[in-house]
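Minutes, project huddle
Topic: does the predicted pose make sense with phosphoenolpyruvate bound?
PN asked that the exact inputs be recorded in the minutes so nobody has to dig through chat later. Recorded below.
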Amino acid sequence: MRNKIIAGNWKMNMDLTGSIELIEELSIELKYVQKCDVVFCPPFPLLLPVKEAMKNTRFELGAQNMFWEDKGAYTGEVSANMLLSVGCNYVILGHSERRKYFNETNETVNKRVQKALLAGLKPIVCIGETLEERESEQTRSVIENQLKYDLQGFCRDDVVNLILAYEPIWAIGTGKTATPDQAVEVHQFIRDLLSKLYDEELAQIVRIQYGGSVNNANARDLLGRSDIDGALVGGASLKAQQFAKIVEAGELNS
Ligand code: PEP
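Predicted holo structure (tokens), as shared on screen:
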């Protein structure tokens, strides 16, 4: 059985004081968690203080992006080794906000994923369709295209080390959640694709998170489904009580 993985994507929110308070509160609240993996992805300047605040917990640290080069004249970018040096073991790549606002493409996502895997980070690779694409019944072709390009050139041993996040763009930050059935349908489609591209055993190993307005009210229904291996949580990850309830649903179903 795949244990659940709940990741909080703080996006460009929080400051030093608020982030430490949130981690301290959740450290107490989630002390009982044993099976569900819990990952916090704060903005770059908060990675180290958050790492320090989570010592003596099972929490893990992730970044929201990284560049594929090792070092050099790339103002504003951070490398995989920099992330590793502050204690990250996960990195979100290909988030739809990065694709939309910062012109990331399947090609650049692929380069980032390649570098992250080489460095020993676990990428959380985001894929998902727009509302327009869903309404014109293109969901499957869009997902297939993204998955094929984002994972191009990767062997089975690479893919074992990554997490996929199915994030329908129409559900991100909108309060509109995919129903568990809608999410499961796409998760099964992704698993079938993995099986065709690699093999069935691998398809059963890779964890696929759902992301898009997950909150304390819908987490149990979503995470109660065996094909949904966790959640990538934006807005609700900024509120300790909400996030704690989502992790509780993850632990219950792990
Ligand atoms: C996200 O940022 O990946 C996300 C799913 O955001 P929200 O939970 O706010 O929809």
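Observations noted during the meeting:
- The CA atoms of residues 12 and 43 lie 6 Å apart.
- The chain has one domain: 5-252.
No decisions taken; revisit at the next huddle.
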